[in-house]
Amino acid sequence: MPVIVVANPKGGVGKSTLSTNLAGYFASRGHGVLLGDIDRQQSARAWLNIRPPAATQIATWDISEDYIAKPPKGTTHVVLDTPAGLHGWRLNDVLKMADKVIVPLQPSIFDILATQDFLRRLAEEKSVRQGEIDVGIVGMRVDARTRSADQLHRFIEGLNLPVLSYLRDTQNYVQLAAHGLTLWDIAPSRVQRDIEQWQPIIDWVEGKPIPAPAVSAITMPPQS
């Protein structure tokens, strides 16, 4: 049962957008998926509460700082949304559960600087270095052809972590989230461009080979 953790200690970078849509993808493929949320704001849980009954089922994973419920029988995939400020023992506990970690990152200088230490911490983690946990980065609200994307590469170059994809800034995510829906709950023709951007992420979480240039090796300048 793969556990995919979506994490970044910086708030407002798109963790819940990634978590809910990833859970929606797994549900659309008929998997028994749990969506856990250890963020105090409980954004993912609130989103599940407005999800239409007719939509593919996504269950809630009862998880908090002090309690983790055993996944029910039939669960095949778990997606875990995490809070801003994740570090220390809480990060260690999350990594013990994780098979893969996705780090959403916006290309602004403030977001990059706020995430540098976290990325270094992940890259230096023994389980990551030994290949027990895979870590991938997703550029959020950015066009891969822009200078902003180049800036993201320059600042996180050197850690040997892949940039899986870039997700554009679109109201599709906002409007769907407001109704408890994901890209995979509506006609593909309405969100075709977004689904195409998600394909390298889906391939990565499913362990499929990702053709270049979908994945770019990135490095980060050494600390002074």
| Sequence of strands across the biggest β-sheet | 3-2-4-1-5-6-7-8
Low-confidence stretches: 213-224
In terms of DSSP E residues, the strand content is 15-25%
Determine Rg (CA atoms, Å).
16 Å
**CATH top level assignment:** Alpha Beta
Q: What's the number of extended β-strand segments?
A: 8
- Could you say what the CATH architecture is? 3-Layer(aba) Sandwich
Structural class: alpha/beta
Q: What summary fits the major beta sheet?
A: 8 strands, mixed
Number of spatially distinct domains: 1
End-to-end gap: 41 Å
Report the mean per-residue pLDDT as an integer. Answer: 83
Strand and helix order? EHEHEEHEHHEHEHHE
Helical residues, percent: 25-40%
Protein name: ParA family protein
Organism: Herbaspirillum rhizosphaerae
Pfam families: CbiA
Domain CobQ/CobB/MinD/ParA nucleotide binding: 4-182
